[in-house]
Design brief:
The protein is of the alpha+beta class. Helices cover 15% and strands 26% of the residues. The strands form five sheets. It has a nine-stranded antiparallel β-sheet with strand order 7-8-11-12-13-14-15-16-17, with no helix packed on it.
Amino acid sequence: MTKSRVLLSIALSTSFVALGHAQSEQVRLSGASKDGTVGITTPARMMVLGPRSGDSQPATTLSAPTEWEPSANAVKEELEAEIADQQRQIEQLRSALEEQKKLLERTLKAGADESTSSSPMQVSGRNEVATAMVPSSPTASAMSSAPQEKTGAEEVSPLQLRIGSAFITPVGFMDFTSVYRSHDGGSGIGTNFAGIPYGNVMGNKLSEFRFSMQNSRIGFRVDAMVKGAHVIGYMESDFLGNNPGNVAVSSNSNTLRSRLYWIDAQKGKWEVLGGQTWSLITPGRSGISPLPGNLFFTQNIDVNYQLGLVWGRIPEFRFVFRPTNKAAFAVALDSPEQYAGNSAGGGTITLPSALSALGSTSATSGQLNFGGTTLNVLTLKWADLNASLRSGTRTPGSHSRKPGAAAS
């Protein structure tokens, strides 16, 4: 027993000398073994102590008992728990980031609505992520309602207005025309081809020069889908109406005039149109279409177009059948008018003396329109009938464009 105590005293004395730099560490004894060695365990290290000089006793081994070693499974479980917690935090941050991205996109599309209750966002750097600071105090909430600084190019407004399921597209242009004629026809910017003065008349020796905005256009187009049918409404007007005699004296108050006003519906191979439109007698560029861009007016800038061109804008009810995409057959009922010439200086028909009453230019008794009877001419019981069969690929820009698509 005395020998064991001596060994213990020697081991303790030697260990304290060897571990003097770690005095704060906890020292534990595992007890003496059968051969008299003593084990000392510290949290930082394990050492083997030899006997003092001159001592015949065996070396003292400092070994850590199994009960004080940290469990590998416990360390693994702790690390896995920390990793799982960090993964949850990452997922939460990622979800918050996606929400802020969506909020930023909605804000930009809405024109950065400053009345929204969401907090201001800041975008820094070219490749950095947009972050949002959620106010947690009344002061922060007040700051979030302040006007936000707009960054980047503002979204350009579309060329269409939407009301319900209908798209409204403004149409028209601003025109300023200059006209010079070597012979004074006195007809404004529209040439009176039948009234050009020739020969020994005063107008033949005079010229004509004018400025005018009368050919400017204003109107709209409406596109909508109604029970599977593509419906187009079209209205167009200019300022070439019936002007007063002193229109060019001071104010130049040109009269607004209706040109086109119709509704067209197409479903499958069938198409129905009603309203004032270009008559079927007007040549088309390709196929049958009521839209002005699909008709043929020549390249003349004269508002009366080309001498010899047959055309008319007439109230009409039209039926169109398209058996294929390259053929169309149309039948139209036009508003009747018994025209006999003499409009704008044009020639007139010569009637036999027995039918002279028919050729009376009186507005009350005339049965034919000689260009000056307005709406007083007696009309027939039936409308004028026009029919047309045309071939050619359907022109883009009519019913090939669905509502909401850009105009061609």
